[in-house]
Amino acid sequence: MITLQKKSLDASEIDRIIEMAWEDRTPFDAITFQFGLSEADVKALMKKELKFSSYKLWRKRVENCKTKHVAKRSEEIHRFKCNRQRTISNNKISKR
Questions:
Q1: Is the whole model's pTM more than 0.85, yes or no?
Q2: Phi then psi dihedrals of residue 92, to 5 deg
Q3: Does residue 41 sit in helix, strand or coil?
Q4: Checking CA distances to 68, which of 9, 27, 31, 36 falls within 20 to 30 Å?
Q5: Three-state DSSP class for residue 95
Q6: Which InterPro entries match (predicted)?
Q7: Residue 70's pLDDT is what?
């Protein structure tokens, strides 16, 4: 279990955050909305949980990804997730 800024996360939540962080179309705001972690918290979590080489690749990818930051996104996109993605809300992972 990991604690970031007074927030305890179990293994399934950590796995979901890492998955969301790797997804190009999931902005940091979606992670903040679902888990209450800031972008800096996500970066710290990724650094702690990933191998250093994987973390470096992820950081390089995030810096160049326009869809990870809402300010860089197209104004046409007004949602956190793909419209074809199953509903994920309140930290619950939809059944697959």
A1: no
A2: -100, 130
A3: helix
A4: 9
A5: coil
A6: CHP03643
A7: 59
70: phi then psi, degrees, rounded to nearest 5: -60, -35
The pLDDT of residue 63 is 84
d(CA 8, CA 36): 11
Q: Residue 31 is encoded by which pair of tokens? A: 């992670």
Distance CA 11, CA 53 (A): 22
Within 8 A by CB and 6+ apart from 14, the residues are: 2, 45, 49
For residue 54, the model assigns a pLDDT of 93
Q: Which helix (H) or strand (E) holds 20?
A: helix 11-22
**For position 49, what pLDDT does the model report?**
93
The Cα–Cα gap between 96 and 86 comes to 9
Q: Where are the domains of the chain?
A: 9-72
Report DSSP state, residue 92.
B
